[in-house]
């Protein structure tokens, strides 16, 4: 799997430097050498955010995608991004009866040619203000893993290596 880095530019208006509802983050997807391999858009809706991914050069099959707790993406392993974004201190896994990490999302599938165009929803985060905002001090990040999330294993769903990482910082 190729390692990717995401970068973004904020396309929404802000007042007093604070994020506003209905923001759009345009994200350039890059591999570890800096080559652009796709794009992503993060938009806020009435409940949570939608991550629209357009990627190429990934291994075909299912992949986990999570928001992570730190806005630092140092390759090639992206351990610098920390654990899953979990400001409400829940257990990992969308199938956990007690709730899940705010950064947990459904898996997505990469086609046989290594490409995917897909929307992934996360109803537990926001681009606004507050504890579940992706605009935390120091930022947060998005990470795509080499394998799918099993939605239950602790602490991260047995999702494999981190292959894609992108930093998210407020305006």
Evaluate the radius of gyration. Answer: 15 Å
For the sheet with most strands, the description reads: 8 strands, mixed
Q: What is the name of the CATH superfamily?
A: Superoxide dismutase, copper/zinc binding domain
Number of DSSP E strands: 10
User: If strands are numbered along the chain, what order do they take across the biggest sheet?
Assistant: 6-9-10-1-2-3-4-8
Q: Fraction of residues in helices?
A: under 10%
Poorly predicted residue ranges? 1-21
Mean pLDDT across all amino acids: 82
- What gap, in angstroms, lies between the N and C termini? 32 Å
Taken from the alpha-carbon principal axes, the silhouette is globular
CATH C-level class is: Mainly Beta
Helix tally equals 0
Q: Which structural class matches the secondary elements?
A: mainly beta
* DSSP strand content: 35-45%
Number of domains: 1
**What series of H and E elements makes up the topology?**
EEEEEEEEEE
């Amino acid at each position: 799997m190729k390692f990717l880095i995401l970068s973004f530019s904020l396309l929404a208006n802000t007042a007093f430097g604070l994020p506003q509802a209905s923001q759009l983050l345009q994200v350039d997807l890059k591999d570890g050498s800096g080559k652009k391999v796709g794009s992503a858009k993060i938009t806020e809706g009435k409940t949570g955010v939608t991550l629209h991914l357009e990627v190429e050069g990934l291994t075909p099959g299912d992949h986990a995608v999570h928001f992570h707790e730190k806005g630092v993406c140092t390759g090639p392993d992206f351990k610098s991004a920390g654990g899953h974004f979990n400001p409400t201190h829940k257990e990992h896994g969308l199938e956990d009866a007690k709730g899940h990490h705010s950064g947990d999302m459904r898996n997505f599938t990469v086609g046989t040619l290594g490409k995917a165009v897909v929307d992934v929803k996360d109803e537990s985060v926001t681009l606004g203000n507050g504890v579940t905002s992706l605009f935390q001090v120091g930022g947060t990040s998005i990470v795509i893993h080499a394998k799918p999330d099993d939605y239950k294993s602790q602490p991260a769903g047995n999702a494999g290596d981190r292959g894609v990482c992108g930093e998210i910082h407020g305006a």
